[in-house]
Amino acid sequence: MLKAVEDVHGGVIVEMEESMDSDSFVPLLRDSLSKWRLMEGFRYHHAEPDYLMLVHWLPRTTDTLPANASHRVGIGAFVMNDKKEVLVVQEKYGKFKDIGLWKLPTGVVNEGEDIHLAAIREVKEETGVETEFVEILAFR
C-alpha cells in the first residue's frame, strides 16, 4: 500500500517521499485504490502528471460532480481588412515550418477564456495585428 493520510474531507493524500519506477508504483497504486474504494467508496475522477484525483460524493444526494475536461477548443481566425485582403501566416515552428504553406492564424482557447477573446489574442500573438471580433463563421 502507498502511505497516505486522511484529509479534512475524508479523502486521502499520498505524498511520495521518493520517486519509484512504474513497475513498482503501478501494483502499489492498484492495491491502494482497491482498498480505498472498499473503505470509503472512492471512484476514479482524473489524473494529471503530478496527481491522481479520486472522489466520493456525500451520501443520500445525487452525485453532480462534472466529469474532468476531455477536450480542447481550437480557433482559426478569418481576418479581412477594408481592401478585402485576408490575413494568412506561415508557421515558424512544427511540422508546417519551411514548407511554403500559408494558413489562417490558429490557436487554442485557454481554460475559462471566451472564444472571441481567444481569436483576438491568437491573431495578436501570431501576427501583431489588432483585430475586432465580428462573428463565429463555423463551429464543429
From TrEMBL:
SUPFAM superfamilies: Nudix (SSF55811)
Keyword GTP-binding among record annotations: no
Gene3D superfamilies membership: 3.40.630.30, Nucleoside Triphosphate Pyrophosphohydrolase
Pfam families found in the cross-reference section: NUDIX
InterPro entries according to UniProt: Nudix_hydrolase, NUDIX_hydrolase-like_dom_sf, Nudix_hydrolase6-like, NUDIX_hydrolase_CS, NUDIX_hydrolase_dom
Entry annotated with the keyword Hydrolase: yes
Domain of life, per lineage: Eukaryota
GO molecular function, one term: ADP-ribose diphosphatase activity
Family membership: Belongs to the Nudix hydrolase family.
Protein name (record): Nudix hydrolase domain-containing protein
